[in-house]
Design goal:
heterodimer; A: Beta-galactosidase, Chain A, domain 5; Glycosyltransferase; ten-stranded antiparallel sheet; five-stranded antiparallel sheet; elongated; B: alpha+beta; 19-stranded antiparallel sheet; two-stranded antiparallel ribbon
């Protein structure tokens, strides 16, 4: 019974914003090393080039591929994800299987055209995969080029798509950890060389029976068109395949390589947990061979086929060049990039590309990282402030404003147990649905939202500032009212709030300071738009100051000061504020807000995909204030 | 003999002709009686039957049709029949399609006799029955049309088929018993196995014995409340004093378990080992195993892997109760758990669960009972500790503590080492909401929400009509002997 208690507690209390290493330990890691996306379709690959995560229709929406590891040390089995295989001398080798990775890089700084090169086997065969998502079409393009001493007899493309049509509120695991409840069917159009995986929204028993019947009699592609909208994924090569293999992935086994059952070759359709594979005749390319696959995503069969036809018509080179040009143009407006060295400019552009790819083009959400395992493909409001600041200073204010409007839409406006009015969810999906379990109340999120609104307003021109503040004033008021009344005790300290570092509630100095930051930011906004400062806010300001002073007096060492809040408090508090004055701490003179405590946090060493670390990178490169460059 | 002068007496031949229909009737009746007696004789055997020696689960009934008839008339049987007519109909139809026999108690008695010995082995099942004349007649016909298998044996010097086939079943005869299964190996092994003796089951009883770890047996009686008794290998701390907490909760918990020590609470987990392969198979099929792999690292991150506190020596009776399960917009239920502990110094010594306190602690009071509150995660998970008189209490939510603190009922203790209670009504209510929500979130495979309402939810309603499970047990050696009722309704508990 005690273990059952632990199970339930742990299930409910999952981390809302745990540091990356802890999240990997808890949920395992799919090993995503590079991402390409357009704010809608977002694809992640691992070091071998295998596609291990595939989010559509947004970076914080559904994962559409089966790929799972049991821990951060496991490698997904061969029948997971999307990957290429090469046949030479009667033997097929999959790129995800053995060999040695040579490099993985972007085509150009900031341009998310991912090139992965690796050697296959021991006899000098070199494979180079180029993969990218078109910036304006929900199309994934992947090309494999092979060079070796022997001719390549065939190239294979394996796809374990698992179309998903819904997310589960308060449980961000359904689309990748519960794939048994996703997927539906796959069918092939042999004449056009198109394979389509799909799942209609909320499939009924009748849908399943019909699909099984169509698969059993190898029905033609037209028979499959009648299913309703949902998630449709269609792929095709530049040239028709020589073989199409469809089947049930559970028949592919677990560890013993990738062997397709004979019955699966040439099938017209399959249902349930499906996979597909195509065998392509390679085209000559220079000294080697190549094949290209285009994958289109859409809500229905017609839209998907139209996208796919468009992509095939334009061809690989055109799409790749369009992608490179679009990203280059987009990143060219980055503020202050021209004043940086080549290396630092490249780092800046890469970090900005990470941030821009994490932004949902439809709803405005910005996810922490567009990966599903661990579940970081969520918008965490407490981190959004840093991301917004980085985008503002880099010259992308429209993205920030869309994000702030998205966050404003998630503010709770009706009371519910565990969800006080004016608070924000600890994490939410790209469409605003709450993603963290209800038990988790991240009270600081409201403070960070208010601070981010104020900071963005200060970075836009004076002419737009007042109008901007007025447009979000009702939302900021809700948050500030919550911050003002969410207190207990004689000094108005906020009750313990969820601390991601320890995965439980805690009354911390960081939370205290965050509340203070939020109230101060709201007060500044009130002054800017000539709105009266509500009395509860004033009272809370005083109470929080007293609580902070008391808490600081109990600090043992300066290292206990939470570093992340320094730059924010530094920006909002007046020059003569008492936090800028030295105080005695453990017998040593120490100033809470000083140059030592107001720096930008250090990003993680391998921070390629994490939007928060990317934000830190941007801010450390170009400063936090575009007006001063500091 | 001379005829009377005024009466015309019929001749003997005429009398015989007139009596012929009656004689025929008497002959038929006599024949029927003889056949009925012979049929009855054939259906009476001195043993339970035959099944393979390595059968994992064995089910035995001395008069299965009577048991089935009585079971259908119990409140539980009526509830299942009323809530799940489609299930009952489909099951009966499946049996009829397979065997040609409609599965009613009367028809079972007519075709397959009284005793039943059923076995389950590695996913395959088989039966051993003592049929009468009708089934033997069908067998004779089956032999005529040549549906024997290739397996033969020498019987009295004659090459005789060992196994026969009928539809998808294989069967064989042994000492008046018919052994049948879809698995020919089952039938073959049953032919070579020793006889299973009768276990003394009454006509309205069924005996179930299992060899899977932990091994045990259970006797189920087909009457209202479904009384059960049995024994299972277990390690539960025996006690001399009665259990006072088993029925003390002020509201009926969804589930409660009462024993002497915290470690005894692992007993359900030990019992679950018996069904662990099945559970694991289900979890693997639905990918939940992967999902649950996230749990142990979370527990480690919390430091909850040392959950059993140091102060357990002070506790000599403890009870854990699942008071409620809340379900909101998502699919994760939030449980309300409560713990009650008693010991020689309960209420006076520090609370045994105090070491679980990690962070902030606030003094609190519920119904005049002092205690403390430590936030864990939000309002849903708040560790509440209280102590009064001879009891320590803990709860995972402040609202739950408010309902139980100072309100444990003083009832006579029960003479048992362990007691389990399950409120099927509350379980059914929760499961209905949970499955309805799951269906809306496309988590019920193969159907949408509207179909789940008609296909799946009736099961939860049937469960909700079963009342409550009440079991208690005492240790004798290494065996836990238990007794109680599986589906006790209010009518059964009324004095």
């Amino acid at each position: 019974m005690t273990r059952l208690l632990s199970l339930f507690i742990a299930l409910v209390a999952f981390a809302a914003a745990v540091e990356g290493a802890t999240f990997d330990e808890v949920f395992g890691s799919a090993g995503v090393t590079a991402v390409s996306g357009n704010g809608g379709l977002t694809v992640g690959v691992d070091a071998s080039g295998r596609v291990v995560s595939c989010q559509w229709p947004g970076p914080g929406r559904f994962d559409q591929v089966t790929c799972l590891t049991a821990s951060d040390r496991d490698v997904p089995p061969l029948w997971h994800g999307l990957h290429w295989g090469v046949s030479m001398r009667g033997e097929t080798r999959w790129l995800s299987e053995g060999g040695s990775s040579l490099e993985q890089r972007r085509m150009a700084q900031g341009v998310p055209v991912i090139i992965t090169a690796k050697s296959i086997g021991e006899d000098g065969v070199l494979a180079r995969q180029t993969l990218f998502v078109h910036p304006h079409l929900d199309v994934l393009v992947t090309r494999l080029e092979v060079e070796g001493p022997e001719p390549t007899s065939a190239l294979h493309f394996f796809a374990n798509f698992t179309p998903c049509t819904r997310l589960i509120p308060e449980l961000p695991l359904a689309d990748w950890a519960l794939d048994a409840f996703n997927d539906f069917a796959v069918f092939a159009d042999a004449d056009a060389g198109i394979v389509t995986h799909f799942r209609p929204a909320a499939p009924s028993r009748r849908d399943w029976e019909r699909a099984r019947e169509l698969a059993a009699r190898d029905a033609g592609p037209d028979a499959w068109q009648g299913f309703r909208d949902g998630t449709w994924i269609a792929y095709a090569a530049a040239n028709p395949p020589s073989a199409v293999i469809l089947g049930d992935e559970t028949a592919l086994g677990d560890d013993a390589g990738l062997k397709f059952p004979e019955n699966d070759v040439g099938r017209g359709g399959a249902t349930g947990q499906c996979y597909s594979a195509v065998t392509l005749t390679p085209e000559p390319l220079g000294a080697g061979w190549c094949a290209t696959v285009f994958v289109a995503f859409g809500p229905n069969a017609a839209e998907t086929r139209r996208l796919l036809a468009d992509a095939r018509r334009q061809g690989y080179n055109t799409l790749r060049d369009q992608t490179a040009a679009s990203w280059s143009a987009r990143l060219a407006r980055t503020r202050a990039a021209e004043s940086l060295s080549t290396d630092r400019a490249a780092a800046l552009h890469d970090a900005l590309a990470t941030l821009l790819m994490a932004a949902d083009r439809t709803h405005g959400a910005i996810v922490r990282a567009p990966v599903t395992q661990p579940p970081l493909a969520l918008d965490w409001p407490r981190h959004g402030a840093w991301i917004n600041l980085a985008l503002d200073t880099a010259g992308f204010p429209e993205t920030v404003e869309r994000h702030l409007w998205f966050l404003a839409g998630t503010i709770r406006r009706t009371p519910a147990p565990g969800r006080p009015i004016g608070s924000l969810p600890a994490a939410c999906y790209g469409d605003g649905t709450e993603a963290a379990p209800r038990a988790v109340l991240d009270a600081d999120a409201a403070a960070w939202f208010a601070a981010s609104v104020w900071r963005h307003g200060m970075l836009v021109g004076p002419a737009e500032r007042t109008a901007f503040f007025e447009s979000l004033w009702p939302d900021v008021t809700l948050c500030a009212d919550f911050l003002a009344r969410w207190s207990r005790g004689p000094f108005g300290e906020p009750p313990p709030t969820f601390d991601p570092a320890i995965l439980r509630d805690r009354a911390s100095l960081e939370s205290l300071l965050a509340f203070y930051l939020g109230i101060e930011s709201a007060a500044h906004m009130a002054a800017d738009i000539d709105a009266p400062l509500p009395a509860p806010w004033e009272q809370q300001q005083r109470q929080l100051q007293s609580a902070i002073q008391l808490r600081l007096a109990r600090l043992d060492t300066p290292e206990a000061w939470p570093m992340g809040l320094g730059p924010w408090l530094d920006a909002v508090l007046p020059a003569e504020h008492w936090l800028r004055k030295p105080m005695r701490l453990g017998g040593v003179s120490w100033t809470p807000l000083s140059d030592q405590t107001t720096g930008i946090p250090e990003p993680a060493p391998e921070a390629g995909l994490d939007a928060l670390d990317a934000a830190f990178t941007v801010l450390r490169l170009i400063g936090t204030d575009p007006r001063t460059g500091r | 003999m001379t005829a009377h002068p005024f009466v015309d007496r019929p001749s003997g031949r005429t009398r015989f002709r007139a009596a012929r229909p009656w004689l025929a009737l008497v002959a038929v009746l006599f024949g029927a009686v003889v056949l009925a007696a012979l049929d009855r004789h054939l259906k009476t055997i001195p043993r339970a039957g035959f099944c393979p020696a390595d059968t994992a689960v064995v089910v035995q009934a001395s008069d299965f049709p009577s048991f089935l008839d009585a079971l259908q008339r119990t409140r539980a049987g009526v509830a299942i029949t009323e809530e799940l007519p489609a299930l009952v109909h489909d099951a009966a139809l499946a049996v009829r399609i397979e065997t040609g026999i409609r599965p009613t108690p009367l028809r079972w008695r007519v075709w397959l006799g009284f005793p039943l010995l059923a076995g389950v082995r590695e996913g395959e099942w088989g039966l051993c029955v003592a049929p009468g004349l009708l089934a033997r007649g069908v067998h004779a016909l089956n032999r005529l049309v040549g549906r024997a298998t290739d397996e033969h044996e020498a019987v009295a010097g004659v090459d005789t088929p060992r196994l026969y086939a009928y539809g998808r079943f294989y069967y064989a005869w042994r000492e008046g018993c018919l052994i049948l299964s879809r698995d020919p190996a089952y039938v073959r092994d049953a032919l070579d196995a020793p006889a299973t003796p009768f276990a003394g089951a009454a006509p309205d009883e069924m005996l179930i014995a299992w060899k899977t770890d932990p091994p045990g047996s259970l006797r189920l009686r087909a009457e209202d409340g479904l009384p059960v008794s049995g024994a299972v290998t277990a390690e539960i701390t025996p006690r001399a004093a009665p259990l006072t907490l088993a029925d003390a909760w002020p509201e009926s918990p969804l589930f409660s378990l009462t024993a002497s020590r915290f470690e005894d609470a692992a007993m359900p987990a030990a019992l679950c080992r018996a069904v662990q392969p099945f559970i694991k198979g289900c979890l693997d099929t639905y990918g939940v195993t992967q999902f649950l792999r996230c749990v142990p690292p979370l527990i480690d991150a919390w430091g909850w892997n040392q959950l059993v506190p140091d102060g357990r020596q002070a506790v000599d009776e403890c009870s854990v109760a699942l008071l409620g399960l809340e379900l909101d917009d998502g699919i994760l239920p939030a449980p309300e758990l409560a713990f009650a502990m008693r010991g020689p110094r309960a209420g006076r010594d520090p609370h045994p669960l105090t070491p679980l306190i990690r962070e902030t602690l606030f003094p609190f009071e519920w119904n005049g009972v002092p205690g403390m509150v430590s936030p864990v995660v939000g309002e849903r998970w708040t560790l509440c500790l209280a102590a009064w008189e001879d009891t320590w209490l803990a709860a995972t939510r402040e609202a739950a503590m408010a309902r139980v603190a100072g309100r444990l009922a003083e009832r006579p203790g029960i003479r048992a080492d362990v007691a389990v209670r399950v409120d099927w009504t509350k379980c059914g209510t929760f499961l209905e909401r949970f499955l309805r929500r799951a269906a809306q979130l496309e988590l019920v495979r193969g159907m949408d929400a509207r179909e789940a309402e008609h296909i799946v939810l009736p099961y939860t309603r049937a469960l909700g009509r079963l009342g409550a499970l009440r079991l208690q047990g005492r240790m004798e050696g290494d065996r836990l002997h238990f007794e109680g009722r599986l589906a006790e309704t209010v009518e059964e508990t009324a004095p």
